[in-house]
Amino acid sequence: MVLSYVLRRLVQMIPTFLGATLLAFLIIQAAPGDFTDRFALDPNIDPEQLQRMRERFALDQPVMVQYANWMWSIVRFGYLGESFSYRAPVNAVIYPLVLNSMSLVLVSLVLTYLLTIPIAVYSAVRQYSLGDKVVTFLSFLGLAIPNFFFILILITGVLFLQPSLRQVAAQGGTAEQVLRPITYDLDRGLVFPVGGMRTSQRVEQMSSWERFKDRVWHLVLPVIVVTTASLASLVRVLRGQMLEFLRSDFVRTAAAKGVPPRGVVYKHALRNALNPLISGIGTLLPSLVGGAGLVEFVIRWPGITPAFVAAVKAQDLYIVMGLLTVSAVLLMIGNFLSDVLLGLVDPRIRYT
Amino acid sequence: MAALQPPNPPGATSSGAAPATPVAQAKLGTTQASIVRSQFRKHRLAMFSLFLLGGFYTAALFADFIAPYGEGQSFRRGEMNRSYAPPTTIYWTDPETGRLTRPYVYPVSSQRDLQTLRVTYVEDRSNPTPIRFFVQGTSYVPPPLSLVPVGIRNQMGWNWTASTRLFGVEQPATIYLWGADQFGRDVFGRILYGARISLTIGILASLIALVLGLLLGGIAGYVGGVVDDVVMRLVEVFATIPSLFLLLALRALFPIEINPTAIFVVLVTILGFISWGPIARVVRGLALSLREEEYVQAARALGARQARVLLRHVLPGTSAYAIVAFSLLIPSFILTEAGLSFLGLGISEPASSWGLMLAVAQEGGIQTFTQRPWMLLPGLFIFIAVLAFNFLGDGLRDALDPKLRK
């Protein structure tokens, strides 16, 4: 039963995937000009060479033929085409980008879910308490603050502390000993690194443990920003659900028959309230990639979005398509997982 | 969206046999609209947001009048160089007697510290310059006319200008309530000018998304069959491409450097075009149940055409959802526009938008933010506007949903 449902869902993904990639392909091809335009004005490249370049990348063929070729090479070899500007296979170009974005996104995703449940449960069980009001207020703030503005503020905050931390580093003493292990680079006065993904000058000399620590330090600020954004909306949703279920008849029955309060909240109300959270996984995975986008930009994280913007500007067709394909696949996997999970958690949902 | 209950169609609540809520019992002769209005008034945050946003829009409309300098007016040459000038201090007391006088400012001049290479501004205490009201400044197109697109204005020969500004000081003094950017442009003024774009893009794009979503969703749900399948597959396809990427790819169809009006139109269209999917999905669901309602069946039995039944009977039933969705879409578009302009793909210089101002702030180097925090102010305004629209949407939802009424 479950297996046939899973299979059918997988088959249903195929037309959606084809439609989405075709749409993207058409949009990109509809843009005026192509990649070779930037060479057209270059006196060192003669028209013949330009023509050869067009032929090599099959830019002279009809759009549908290009699309069919591209799709066929994905299906057969998993090959996403060749990047015009990097002069390298797209797979090799985007692999590290996707990995970098994922490291940021997955940490935020895990943190979001770990934090959402206790915060929302607390806030719903103690409705209108001071804590609940604070949570509601903060989640409104989290929803309204643009990601790229939030990270700018955090960076400003770190830089604001810089002069006094430098002084501490210079003076030494107990203050320095206390602060050194809990700051990223006390000598430069930085609590957290304010840009990039690693400390580039020293990365070669580091042991793998140090490298890991270095990466964690660089993750702190972007993870805070990305997590608060998704946390804010999820807490609001889960709190609303919890409130609804806490007032429902079966929860009152459970309490009346003597189930301890903890059991009432977690076993009866929360189990039911979790549904939208699980169906949210599907949209969360790709939206985190997109949402981390502007943050990646500000903090110079070598992830998907900065590369995508650069590729769009350079009309590097297959890089754009490659990144779109990867995120579309992520999204479909997310939706698929959440549907299957929803069925496992909620016995009312039948696989039909 | 998930928490939103399908609204009762208007006919069902007001003409039903038993009043559904105590509110409906309260007074005879209360209409649906008056109930909603009084419910909305009880939502204090939503009311406050309504007034706040009203203030924002009024300020945006009269931006030219309120701002002391023109949108692109810069001070960056020689004596008048005001690059990154801090907010001007306004004095209220006479320096000798210490008594209250009319407000005045001192002209400033820049000095470069040769060791740190930092520019600091020093006040020239010998030359107090009073702040004057209703002064003549650079000319602009006055408000009601400024809403008409430039092309039409030129064609019709409507080219009246005004040059009265609310306040100003005589040069060489300058007045920057919230400091200046790197070209010596007034941040206060540019926030007002930017509001015109940042606050209208959201509304217009939401309108487009709403109309598309209502029509396509309504048709899909009401007609059903193949049409339904096609529309819903289309929604799915759109939902499969991450919206930021779709947005960027569509933006690439148009040149980066085009005039501000064209960019404005392009952005509004793209934003509306990529965001109708979720609305269509919900509207379709509502239309599916509404088409079985008796009043819709009756309209059909009377021989009304399909289009009429859809537009006059089915879609009005989704109005509660549509209003809430509309008010909650606006803030998301404000955020998206800010993000795009921040990336340099939205509104371009010398026009101003809140996202663009933040991009300019970042260009000066993140490291120097602590020296000129006022450059971050546009972000605060994005934040406040989005927050206010969210509260407004919440208030509307509570007011329109009979189950949530107090």
Question: CATH class of the largest domain in chain B, anyone?
Answer: Mainly Alpha
What class, by secondary structure content of chain A? mainly alpha
User: For the record, what is the CATH homologous superfamily label of the largest domain in chain B?
Assistant: MetI-like
Structural class category of chain B: mainly alpha
| β-sheet strand percentage of chain B | 5-15%
* Biggest interchain interface, per-side counts: A-B, 55 and 48 residues
Domain module tally of chain B: 2
**What percent of residues of chain A are in strands?**
under 5%
What is the C-alpha radius of gyration of chain B, as a whole number of Å?
26 Å
User: Total number of helical segments of chain A?
Assistant: 14
| Average of pLDDT of chain B | 81
The CATH topology assignment of the largest domain in chain B is MetI-like fold
C-alpha termini separation of chain B: 21 Å
Number of spatially distinct domains of chain A:
1
In CATH, the architecture of chain A is: Orthogonal Bundle
* Biggest sheet, spatial arrangement of strands of chain B: 1-2-5
Quaternary state of this entry equals heterodimer
The residue fraction in helices of chain B comes out at: 40-55%
Describe the overall structure.
The complex is a heterodimer of chains A (352) and B (406). Chain A has 14 helices and two strands. Chain A has 352 residues and is an all-alpha fold. Chain A has a single domain (2-31, 80-345), classed as MetI-like fold (Orthogonal Bundle). In chain A, α5 (90-125) packs antiparallel against α6, α5 (90-125) packs across α12 (275-298) and α9 (208-246) packs across α11. Chain A is flat. Chain A starts with a helix and ends in a 7-residue tail after the last helix. By secondary structure, chain B is mainly alpha-helical. Chain B has two domains: 65-184, no CATH class; 188-404, MetI-like fold (Orthogonal Bundle), CATH 1.10.3720.10. Chain B is 54% helix and 9% strand. Chain B has 17 helices and seven strands. In chain B, the strands form three sheets. Chain B has a three-stranded antiparallel beta sheet, with no helix packed on it. A two-stranded antiparallel ribbon of chain B has the order 3-4. The chains are: A mainly alpha (352), B mainly alpha (406). The interface between A and B is large, with 55 and 48 residues.
